[in-house]
Amino acid sequence: IPQTALGGICSLADKFDNIVSYFKIGKFPKGSWDLYALRRQAIGIISILIKMDVALSLSQVFDHIYMASPGASDKKKLKEMLLDFFKERFISFVKERFSYRYDLIDAVVTGGIIDNVQSCFLKLESLNSIIDEPYFENARCVVERTYNIVKSSKSAAGDIKASLLKEPQEHRLHDKLKEVREDFKQLCAEKRYGEATKLYAETFSDETHEFFDKVMVNVNDRSLKNNRIALLEAINKLYVEQIADLSKVVVQT
Fold it and tell me: Lower CB density within 10 Å: C or N end of the chain?
């Protein structure tokens, strides 16, 4: 790993230029064939970004180098290949170097794409440090239960309509969502993922369980049903889109 900021910048620039340029002319690794050591260079990039705590967008880096490099190819398809390439290298890296659980990695790599390596690693590091805390399990249960309801729905829920909130449990859950949303997002923006998880669990755990105990989601009234699904979907996405899909975490017995 470079010992200075300038060394890190030069190393990243060199490695990114090599990878994108070789990909663009069709010289990407295939099977055991990796003549230009692009996998090793990708691991080098990941190591530098994590060790030197550098936040950058792989997608934006690709766009910049693509325009300046020779060759012709389908830009959209090539970008997808490159991001998938880095995703596989990242998964391999954190498994081998840090021994993180496969399900925790799967939860963080939501959507199968890694754009900001540093952010993904910090999420993994934070969640791994709190995985045995009761509030982590509470947060996991909220994400899992809301996911199961949303997944079973066959129609788009749409936006939450306050006028369709009928039961006291619905109103309280909706109020909690409005009350905590910005604070939660701010903690995530500051990369304080452990604190954000605790806030999420403390806010929604009891309220969500009471909602499921007292309120029927799959009612005959379609508008009422969709509104309740929309509420649960918003609570689910608040955590999943900011941190990780905890429904993928396997309960250890």
Answer: C
Rounded distance, CA 79 to CA 110, Å? 18
pLDDT value of position 106? 92
CA 247 to CA 147: how far, in whole Å? 7
For residue 33, the SS3 value is strand
Residues in CB range of 145: below 8 A, 6 or more apart? 208, 209, 212
Task: State the DSSP H helix or E strand holding residue 217, giving kind and residue range, or none if neither.
Answer: none
d(Cα 241, Cα 49) in Å, to the nearest integer? 22
> What CA dihedral angle connects 108, 112, 114 and 119, to 10 degrees?
-10
Specify which residues 30 forms β-bridges with.
Answer: 33
Where the chain has pLDDT below 50, the residues are none
Contact call for residues 95 and 37 (beta carbons, < 8 A): no
Return the pLDDT at 113: 72
d(CA 17, CA 229): 46
